[in-house]
Fold each of these.
Amino acid sequence: MNKSVPATLIPGDGVGPEIVDATTSILGALQAPFEWDIRKAGMTGMKESGDPLPPETIESIRRTGLALKGPLETPVGGGYRSSNVRLREEFHLYANVRPALTLMPGGRYEKIDLVTIRENTEGLYVGFEHYIPIDGDPHAVAIGSGVNTRAGCRRIAEFAFEYAVKHGRRKVTIVHKANILKALTGLFRETAQEVGRAYEGRVQVDERIVDACAMQLVLDPWQFDVIVTTNLFGDIISDEIAGLVGGLGMAPGANIGENVAIFEAVHGSAPDIAGKGIANPLALILASAMMLAHVGCHDLAARLRQSIDITLNQDAIRTRDLGGSASTREFADALIRRL
Ligand code: NAD
């Protein structure tokens, strides 16, 4: 019997409660050791306590150091600042790990096995932006600044190379735009290459300019193994990579810092299908497998992954986004039968 592991559970917004419910029932059937402390955030936090990131939620994560999180809604344009970005800043979750693995043969691309390691706290996502009003137009000019630090670049590069060594990966590709953003992403490139030199003979170092990388990911994704990149590029490229393995419904992510790790699906709250019971819970289930491995329950993570494979490929039970007809609950129940 595994020792219990306290963890914060944030059902989140939109399809969040549906996929979180499916995932926790699977983890329960697996006898995973998590002891959940359920907390609110996002639009649900805003509506119920006037704060998209209530202090009780922050305190819970500080105490447990571990969270499984449903998607959180962020208003576009105006409104409150993203709770996801605030969580990353609050807990210095500097590394965003997004693995993409082909789980179902017969798609557009076969045998994809790629990991994006995205810097999660710096770059253009620091939100240093403002408008300059001119002639009565309050939005006449928009200005945004990015911030990269050598320490931050070194930390994410070291994380990526260590990840490669630990997971038996052969190559790390540094993705940047140092031909145009010479300072902002030039510093990232220079620092990551310097870190890479210490891994010579163990991990191959490669580099790409982000736009060329985006095209090559479509033409020949198999040339890549681990990609390390800055915040904005990582956000975009990892969604592109999710598309290579069947879409956002299959893409898990982990946000890792020194003391806290938060696991989530890469996708958002999917307001167009919320409440219909048809969301694909796989991305969050895969995130929970990463969470199991993170706390050392490798056997449970492997069992969960194996059951996912059998449910998808032998039983052919899939949600609609994957061409099937199963509801969120039906998929979860089918997976539980295979555990
Ligand atoms: P989205 O990922 O919610 O949806 C994009 C498309 O993918 C939609 O058609 C949706 O139905 C589909 N989709 C997403 N998840 C699915 C699933 N599990 N199963 C089946 N189909 C799925 O992106 P969006 O519409 O741009 O964003 C909606 C909200 O989510 C916004 O408020 C955004 O800020 C937020 N968001 C949150 C996170 C997060 O919490 N990590 C990430 C991205 C977006």
Amino acid sequence: MAASRDGQQPQNDGYRSLSLSGHVGFDSLPDQLVNKSIKQGFCFNILCIAGILCAKFLPQLFCLTLGETGTGKSTLIDSLFNTRFDDPVSTHFQPNVRLRAQTYELQESNVRLKLTIVNTVGFGDQINKEDSYQPIVDYIDAQFEAYLQEELKIKRSLFSYHDTRIHACLYFISPTGHSLKTLDLLTMKSLDSKVNIIPIISKADSISKTELQKFKNKLMSELVSNDVQIYQFPTDDETVSQINTVMNGHLPFAVVGSTEKVKIGNKMVKARQYPWGIVEVEKENHCDFVKLREMLICTNMEDLREQTHARHYELYRRSRLEEMGFRDTGPENKPVSLQEAYEAKRHEFYLELQGKEEEMRQHFVQRMKEKETILKEAEQQIQTKLEHLMLMHQEEKLKLEKKKKALEDDIAMFNKKKANAELLQTQAFVSTPVSLKRDKDRKNSGFV
Ligand code: GDP
């Protein structure tokens, strides 16, 4: 490659790198960015899912919490953000899974954080648990869809838009020592391409140290063998790669939560007090709470936000746009403009519509034919019935006419006989009046 006029080599991508002979000022860009971000404020959205409690564990919690889900989600979130979030109590008797989102505004120094905590209510509490995770998937997709719709608007306001996409999913696993439930694996598998999953063993004070390590190993190997992708703290940034690599080796974090404070020495610390001793929430050899807080909030919150946008949302956006018919390249790998993609989709839609119209027409014709056949058959039946009735009527009429004729003959005969009888009677009366008188006299004298 030939050297350029000023003796500097062109860069691989066609840009030349030049040196400045004095201060210009664009080195303040990162500060400008920081100032702008501080002014705008940040948002962070956490989804809490509690894994299925094994039957052995459930009654204990049930008694303790009077039916609350009770895996320690609220206590942990309160402990993480050093405040009390007013999360309403929920019961185990939910007919279906619901997601309850609550947004809070927090401020630390001059940084404002709009924090949304989404709690799953009733997850795994139903008798039929098969579709328990579907509402969670739908919720995550709905937040992506809302963002996509805002992006696609002509007049969009992404700057002031309240981004509700989930940045981190804390998956609470009870310290049972047993294998993960099928529903837990199914849920994590169906979520791992949509959200950054951080598995957490909650209430880690109820499992011994050796059992805990075995449990952690078991969980990790189950996740690997089921190809569940959990969030890995990034190791490509050299400022955090070392700590993140170490922390990836501690996953899943086993945490203890508490909102109670106990006096230790002359300090008040967050802890859980038992008859046999005190478990300090923020003591590294008691549990991984500090590791979780460091990783989730102090070191990788921005990476979680970025991964959500650049990886999970990107995947959703791509599949949705492809579904809508948009393509970057055409059949011969030629770039396709938005206009072309729109026209192609319009044409495809038009053809589809025509096809549907034709299908409907065919269906209509078919239905008409069927109706016509039915009507013809009915008409035929009526016609046959009518002819039959007419025939019967004809026969009946003939019979009646015959009967009428016979009756008329009888009447004529009767009239004739009657006339003859009357004639005979008249003749007899005229010819024998004396004998009739004699008969009368004999009757009157009592002689019979
Ligand atoms: P949620 O229903 O999942 O939000 O659970 P909560 O945070 O309301 O906790 C339920 C119960 O578990 C409460 O009595 C808490 O005090 C208790 N709890 C919370 N975190 C821990 C923990 O780390 N260890 C123990 N042993 N109990 C805990």
